[in-house]
Each structure stands twice: as structure tokens, then as C-alpha cells.
Amino acid sequence: MTTLQTSAILQSSMYSAAPSLLKKGKVMAILDIPKPRTRNIPLPNLQELELGRDFITSLNTTFAEKQAKTNSLVIAKLYTILEAVADRVEMHKNIGEQRKNWNSLLLTSINGITLAAATMSGIASTTAAVVGAPVVALKMSSTLLFLAATGMLLIMNKLQPSQLVEEQRNATRLFQQLLKQIETSINIGNPTDRDVNQAMQKVLALDKAYPLPLLGVMLEKFPSNVEAAVWWPHQHGSGQATSADYNGWNAKLEKEMRSIVEVLKKKDEEEYLRLGRKALKLNKTLAISGPFLTGLAAIGSALVGSSSYFGLLAAIFGVVGGGLASVVNTLEHGGQIGMVFEMYRSNAGFFKLMEESIESNLMDRQENGELFEMKVALQLGRSLSNLRDLASSTPSRKVQDINEFGSKLF
């Protein structure tokens, strides 16, 4: 207040002295000091500030709690799926061992029965020629054994235990692979509902591809058309990737991956499907020949000693048919032709899975490009430079003219 009064006195004295100064020819600048203006600015009190800060803190805490609850729920779901997958690994492993025993025991039993029946048939024909009268007991025993071997062969050829063993072996390996993938998702942290859905879909797809029961849902052992095995849910890219979503991808890498897809489709997958068709054709021939020979041997054994001419033919059919049936049965089930067919079918499925995975990533670039290139190289048993050389050589030649296959593992 004192300051304001002083400035007012100075201002009035300056105005009164101004005429005298002008008369003397002096110019004086008169400063006009503005009066201070005050405004009514409302200021928040401390209580309001505290309430606002508490509200923001509560919002952050609520969001963090919801996020933690969501993450814990997702992890709990993944652990539930993990337990189910671990149980399936043991189930397929145990049932695979059981069906492996089926194959060896049935093979040994049927061959033993067939050879015993052939021996009885030969003894009966010899006794009939020497004594002059057929031995009814040997004939009946031989015929019954041949009929039993025929029935067992029909069941064994229908089930194909060696192929069942290969199915369970593949299922065990693939479920173990899925087990590791789920564990990796949990260990890396921050899993989402998408990871849960993908894990569920993979489990259900594997259950459908490799069923455990034999009745009703067993895979067709002699399909009319050989196709690659499919044990994964259908992969399709979202198609939402833009030019800005590089994620380690570039035009050169995309061209390289498209070339790899062409090689896998035209060379590797087609080659294993061709081998699968050959194995299936051989297996069909052996599956029909075995029961036919044992049935023919049963007829020959029943006609042993009927007459001099027919008795000789019957003895030949009984002995030779039984021996040939044992050879065919050993070649089919001892050689595990059904397992070979399933192996070729699964190998073709492996390359089909790689093709779908590459095409899906080309659409949405979900995986990092450099990491995905390394993954493809490892799956094909190649180094990165070797993989690039294969891709660079493909556009200059037709795929059919390339002698080298995409995979170096199998």
C-alpha cells in the first residue's frame, strides 16, 4: 500500500513539473505505470487434489488387478491343457507298445499254425499213400488249423498292427512337441487367449488324426486315394499385414520362401506320395494273397487221399500253400509294409504342414522373418546359405528339372 501511495505522489509531481521543463526546451518521457489488475482465479484446495490422486491410483490398481487376474486365468487354462497333453503322451506310448506286441505275437502265432498245418497235411498224404487209407485225424486237424490261420490273417490284415504302431509313435512324438510348445509359451510369459485357443485346436486335431479306438473311428488302412496325413488345424493368414508391418520380412525373403514352397510341393511331397502309393499297392497284394493261400491250403488238406490224382494235387496245395502263406505273412507283417506306408504318408504331411506354415506367414507375417527363415532351414536340415542357394536356383529352372530335394533329413 505504501508503495502505491509513493508512486502516485511521484506521478503527480512529474505532471506539475512538466510545463516548466517544456519551457526550458527539455523533453521528458513520462512513464505511465499501469495499474495492477486482479482476477478471481479459483484454486483447488488440498482435499480436492488428494481425492483426484486417489481416484487415479484406484483406477491403476483396478486395471493391474484385472490384468493379473486375466493372465493367471490364461496360465491356468494352459496348465490344464498341458496336463491333458501329458496324459495323451503316456496313453499313445503305452498303446503303441501294446500294438507292437500284437504284431510280433500274431505274426509268430499265425506262422506257427500255418507251418504246423502244412506239416500235418504232408504227413497225412504220405500216410495215405503208404497205408492206403487217409488219416482222418491229421486231415481234420490240418484243415481246422488252416481255417483258423485264414481267419486270423483276415483280422490282422484288416487292422495292420505295424501301421497302428507307427500311428501311435507319430502321435506320441507330436504330442510331446505340443507339450514343449505350451511350456515355452508359459515360460516366455504373457500368454494370451489366442495361445489357449491354438493349443486346444492342436489337441483336437491330433485326436482326430490319430484316434485311439479301433472300432468306428480307425483310420482306413487301404484308402482308395493316398493323401498326406493331416494332424494340425487349418492354417490361414489374416491377410491384415501392410507394407509397414515388415517384422523382419523383405521382398527377397518372401521370394525365397515362395521358391521353397514350390520345391517342397513339387518334389518332396509328391515323391513321398508316389512311394506311399507303391507301398499301399504292395500291401494290398500281400493282404489278399495270405488268406487266399491259407484257404487254398485248407481245401487241399481236406481233399488229401481222395484219389490218386486229386490226392496228389491236394497234398501239393496243402503243403506248398501253407509254406507260401507263411512267406507272404512274414513279408507283409514282418517287413511292416503297413508301417512303411504310414511313414511315407506322414512324411508327405510334414511337408504339407511346412507349405501351409510358410504361406500363412507370407500373408500376415506373424513370425519374425529372420527367425522363421532359420526355423525352415533347421526343419529341412540345411544351413541358411544352403537354403538361399536352393531358393535362388529354383526360378532359373523348372522345379521338375531340379534333382535336389528340399529336405536333407529324410
TrEMBL record:
<feature type="transmembrane region" description="Helical">
    <location>
        <begin position="102"/>
        <end position="124"/>
    </location>
</feature>
<feature type="transmembrane region" description="Helical">
    <location>
        <begin position="285"/>
        <end position="304"/>
    </location>
</feature>
<keyword id="KW-0812">Transmembrane</keyword>
<keyword id="KW-0472">Membrane</keyword>
<dbReference type="Pfam" id="PF14476">
    <property type="entry name" value="Chloroplast_duf"/>
</dbReference>
<feature type="transmembrane region" description="Helical">
    <location>
        <begin position="136"/>
        <end position="155"/>
    </location>
</feature>
<feature type="transmembrane region" description="Helical">
    <location>
        <begin position="310"/>
        <end position="331"/>
    </location>
</feature>
<protein>
    <recommendedName>
        <fullName>F-box protein</fullName>
    </recommendedName>
</protein>
<keyword id="KW-1133">Transmembrane helix</keyword>
<dbReference type="InterPro" id="IPR027949">
    <property type="entry name" value="Chloroplast_duf"/>
</dbReference>
